[in-house]
Amino acid sequence: MRQSLVIGLLTTSFLGTLAGADPAKGSTAQEIVAQSDLVRNPVQSFETVTTLTEYVSGRQRSQEELAVYSKLDLATRQYRNLVQYLAPPRDAGKRVLLGGGALWFYDPASKASVRISPQQRLVGQAAIGDVLTVNFAVDYSAKLLGDETVEDAERRQRHCWHLELKAADDQATYARAEYWIEEGSHYPIKARFYSDSGRALKIAYYRHFVQRLGRLRPSEVVIIDAVDTSLATIASLHDSKFRDVPDIWFQRDYLPRLDAR
Amino acid sequence: MRGRGFCMALLLSAWCTSAVAYQDSDLDLIPATRPAAAGTVAQPGWGVSPGHKIYLENAATGVWDSHDLAAPLPPPRDYLWQERLLLDVRTTDLIGKRAEIHLSTRLNFRDEDDLRFPSHENVVNDLREAYVSWHPSDQTYVDVGRINVKSGIALGYNPTDFFKTRSVTEPLSLDPSALREDRLGTLMARVQHIWGAGSLTIAFAPGIRARSRIYTNTNLPSLNPMFDRTNADDRFLVKGSINLGDNASPEFLLYREAGQLHLGTNLSVGLGQSTVAYLEWSGARRPNLITEAFNYGRETGTLPVNSENPLSGGSRRTFRSELAIGASYTTKADLTVNFEYLLNQAGFSRRDWDAWFAAGTHAEPQAPLIDELWYFRAYARDQQQQNTGQAYFARADWVNAFSAQLELTGFALVDAYDQSGIAQVSANYYLSDSWTIGGLGVRYFGSRRSDFGSLGTSFSLLFSVVHYF
């Protein structure tokens, strides 16, 4: 019931965005992105562990592991996120909070919460905005460019909708993106992110669809630096489970209290 | 521009609608190697989990004095070299389902050219925190023990960080961010309630020890928790934050100590993907820093009871503000820079600096006047108050600097009156998940009759090796 309500919210709010509508399928571009968001993430609150592995010219250079707690905010239709570093040892215990449109970084050593911008990096090519759970349909306005058959990360051919995403507001991590979503399944296959000057910044591939959080979802995202293409980061999502995440977890003052969990 | 975009759209459209499969060259950029299996990353040692952080650090420091001082330094001089081995432990352990015990301590083994060896001064333990936390509900928390309560959103100076006074213990770095780490907590009881729309914190710290003289690096006790530094007066804090919706959650503070009531606030706002602007302010009716230092020195017996304040003026209690206002910006190259303007209306004014140098320039090193003049500045440092009235602060943090293993950090604090300052650059190289090596250089600059140029230090270098367990 609640899921239906959220799906409804996610989709109906964009019915006015008819640019790029696909008459054959009866879906607007925004609805396609919203359906694909549901493939990437569930509407129920959940916890997942994200392993970020950075590569330089194909060689592994560094690795970090994060616990990510996510909960959909029904008012904004966007996720709130609480991230805790699990490894390496020098970073264990550090936390990042995205709640109410603000990002906070907490270091248990200084016991101070510092406000940060989404542009700040976690590790490798992954900005904080890349690791957080987000609904693209909320942060971006979508336009259907056409149909296209592309190769996925495992070089299998996928028949996709090719969409253009433009930042709906300054909450979006990137100014613009190209996004390929498989027709029918709504699986996210590939994305290419651009700066506001039109420069390609990153390329992302979604791969290894496994049963996770109640359905088949991608368990890895490959993030390639489009400026220096020798750099790549693989975000591996595992140990995912539904769990209740109380609203107070997304208060800045709760950050030091996460120890109790 | 628009024409080019149109052409691009046409090309793209033609390409897309043809629905032709193509060889995607981007795929060649995907690393062939598979990452380590899920859940096997950097298996931490016995000391590490989100609630446990234990590391051993060795740091060697060399200091170069400056000569031709405008006002002579009273003896004894500070150390010229120091060797420290420190074991840093921070743990949080659950006691049942609704309580935890928190411990944060640092055991220092040190030697300096101004210390006898061996002596008890070679071993100093900093008990930063030891407290029990109990949460009768998911929203309410009760903490009792020695707690480091920190407030403030700025980096260079924190006017609302009321419990910072006298708490910093022998820091390895002068970076204000590091000073927040190496400090003693305050013995207190604290209650915090957090709900969806905000939070409220009430803390009371009893005065259980008499006020004591300012410590130097040569008279630190080995195992004494030094509650005289943190619990010499009753201290009371009320802090509340409220969510005002998108992007705004201001924090308000009320603090009382020794009959003095302070008000404070922390505000911040995100400006797009790369910029955050912030403001931290506090204010209280109080005399100036010089008068506070003079009174404290007489009360603790450091200055003679019948002595006269050599720098008169500013003793009147009036409402004085402390302010830090600034912004951070992150570049696409992972460089984050902060710029801040810092104000302490109780700090030295331009006239105070002129009076300080006029009094100190012709005094003999052994003259009582010199002790008094330098005491004012030592007091400011001990209280973690900004000595000068106005200053500028800049800090840069560059992660992934040239390499993912290298992090460069630097800051500069400049006195707005005389443009003297302090600059520090540090580099940390992550040899592995468990080992880090680092270097740190500090440079004081300014004329001999300036805030930072008049200090006895010219520059210092530190090299460190850290092993995380």
Which range best describes the helical content of chain A: under 10%, 10-25%, 25-40%, 40-55%, 55-70% or over 70%? 10-25%
Q: Can you tell me the CATH topology of the domain at 2-64 and 121-239 in chain A?
A: outer membrane lipoprotein receptor (LolB), chain A
- The third-level CATH topology of chain B is Porin
Terminal CA distance of chain A: 29 Å
N-to-C order of helices and strands of chain B: HEEEEEHEEHEEEEHEEHHEEEEE
- Largest interface in this structure: A-B, 85 and 95 residues
Outline type of chain A: globular
The counted number of beta strands of chain A is: 15
Uncertain stretches of chain B:
1-21, 38-48
How does this model look, in words?
Chain A is built from 4 helices and 15 strands. Chain A is mainly beta. Chain A has a domain at 2-64 and 121-239: outer membrane lipoprotein receptor (LolB), chain A (Clam). A 13-stranded antiparallel β-sheet of chain A has the order 6-5-4-3-2-1-15-14-13-12-11-10-9. Chain A is globular, with a radius of gyration of 18 Å. Chain B has 469 residues and is mainly beta. Chain B has one domain (50-468): Porin (Beta Barrel), CATH 2.40.160.10. The longest helix of chain B has 16 residues, at 2-17. The model of chain B is unreliable at 1-21 and 38-48 (pLDDT under 50). Chains A and B meet through β1, β2, β3, β6 and β9 of A and α1, β1, β2, β6 and β7 of B.
Give the helix/strand layout:
The complex is a heterodimer of chains A (261) and B (469).
Chain A: H1 2-12, H2 29-40, E1 46-56, E2 59-73, E3 78-87, E4 95-99, E5 102-107, E6 112-116, E7 121-123, E8 126-127, H3 128-131, H4 136-139, E9 140-151, E10 157-167, E11 176-182, E12 188-194, E13 200-212, E14 215-225, E15 231-242
Chain B: H1 2-17, E1 52-65, E2 81-94, E3 99-112, E4 123-134, E5 140-147, H2 176-179, E6 186-195, E7 198-205, H3 227-230, E8 235-242, E9 251-257, E10 260-271, E11 275-286, H4 289-299, E12 318-330, E13 335-344, H5 350-360, H6 368-382, E14 390-398, E15 406-415, E16 421-430, E17 435-445, E18 457-468
Antiparallel strand pairs in B: 1-2, 1-18, 2-3, 3-4, 4-5, 5-6, 6-7, 7-8, 8-9, 9-10, 10-11, 11-12, 12-13, 13-14, 14-15, 15-16, 16-17, 17-18
Helix pairs in contact in B: 4-6
